[in-house]
Amino acid sequence: MSHRLWRKLESLGISQSQWSSRASSMAANSPVGSHSFCFSGSLMPFLLIRRCLGSNKAGESLSQVLDFPGGKVNFSSEMRFLSESSPERISCYRVLDDYGRIISNSSSQQVRKEVALKMYRDMVTLQTMDTIFYEAQRQGRISFYLTTIGEEAINIASAAALTIDDIVIPQYREPGVLLWRGFTLQEFAHHNFGTKYDSGKGRQMPVHYGCSRLNYFTVSSTIATQLPHAVGVAFALKMDKKNACAVVYFGDGGTSEGDFHAALNFAAVMEVPVIFFCRNNGWAISTPTTEQFRSDGAVIRGQAYGIRSIRIDGNDGLAVYNAVCAAREMAISECRPVLVEALTYRVGHHSTSDDSTKYRPMDEIEHWRTARDPVSRFRKWVEGNGWWSNEVELNLRSNVRKELLQAIQVAEQTEKPPLFELFTDVYDQVPLNLCEQEKSLRETIRKHPGDYPIDSLFRKKQLKGARQHPTMLYLSLQA
């Protein structure tokens, strides 16, 4: 046994002879003989220490410590299970009350006038964009849409607290982060209408944005898969010694996925600069949080994985801004993960494929739409500072609406991406199975010219591609 353990035994008042006697006794009484000690030798000193300590006089108080890997653990003679929940729920940080007034003694930093006004303008723009694109989908002009109504502060205020060097790994309800970073309304329109100017070449569902120049990963519909990716991104930032962090957004439903747990543990162990931002809006589509988990939301889970965590009012723009600013500073300067749980409410339906009135009461929706609206609350604060007026408000909403309608008109009149691009950008040499699929597509177009007009650009591009790729040449010969 090591000198360290001998010194430990001596400090506990256990002699070498006592130790040898106890060890022999335990070996003789072991159901599998002394060989069991060879198999679990690393554990034997701890077991023997406890046996030796057990020889103390009855009733004598013991307060010994187990020097366990990862940290010392106190022994207790009392059998006590950890409670499944704390008597009090973890508090929620906020700065503005429901009337847009600063709460006295609130811990917050001053937000510059220019930043505050841009935050409010972008909240209004995001709200207007959601309304018009939702109407466009209902008119059959785009195939799908989902809104951020009720969660505008989470989008814009969190984005305002970051820098362009911070890498965003979104879910599908964070277009406001892109808006803040400079993605134009015309770019939003080109994406949702799937035009040739869409950076995704029309191959993504609407609202599945992505923009490499703005450090915004392309959205994926699969729930929570972005969380381990974000930890990998943060690990790369750490290795490159970048003054930046990764920020990953997800909903409360994502915390029920295995990827959530794997990502938090991975981030904590590897000590990487990542902010986990959970939008707890009470509903994972139609599943309420009460049917999803028994813990006190998501924030308590951060502590379980050794991650510093905070719960904030997601409808309070200043609280979101301050918390993300602080989380970013911790993540980068201390190289650690941080979990932020923002309590909010999804006022709109989950998407245009959903009718939320089927599973939640209308009065609940209306309460959050009016009494807890984050845009109205933030407006009251900027007005209270003398930075805003009704006239400026009307001009802003009118101009945003005009710009967006113009962007939609341009997108509707813009050509779609050439069909051959359905089969590119994955393989350097297009495999034969994709060539066969393209051949089948072209045959379908020829059979139904009224439904699928023949695209001359498609043919031209396809022949050009055939000269570059042997598999494309094979396809052209088989046509």
From TrEMBL:
Family annotation (InterPro entries): Alpha-ketoacid_DH_E1_comp, DH_E1, THDP-binding
This enzyme's EC code(s): 1.2.4.4
Catalytic activity: N(6)-[(R)-lipoyl]-L-lysyl-[protein] + 3-methyl-2-oxobutanoate + H(+) = N(6)-[(R)-S(8)-2-methylpropanoyldihydrolipoyl]-L-lysyl-[protein] + CO2
Swiss-Prot/TrEMBL keywords: Metal-binding, Mitochondrion, Oxidoreductase, Potassium, Transit peptide
Subcellular location: Mitochondrion matrix
Highest taxon above the source species: Eukaryota
Main localization category: mitochondrion
One Gene Ontology term of the molecular function aspect: metal ion binding
Domain Dehydrogenase E1 component: 121-417
Cofactor: thiamine diphosphate
Recorded GO CC terms: mitochondrial matrix
One GO term of the biological process aspect: branched-chain amino acid catabolic process
Coiled coil segments of this chain: none
Protein family: Belongs to the BCKDHA family.
Subunit organization: Heterotetramer of alpha and beta chains.
Name of the protein in question: 3-methyl-2-oxobutanoate dehydrogenase (2-methylpropanoyl-transferring)
Gene designation per UniProt: LOC120260412
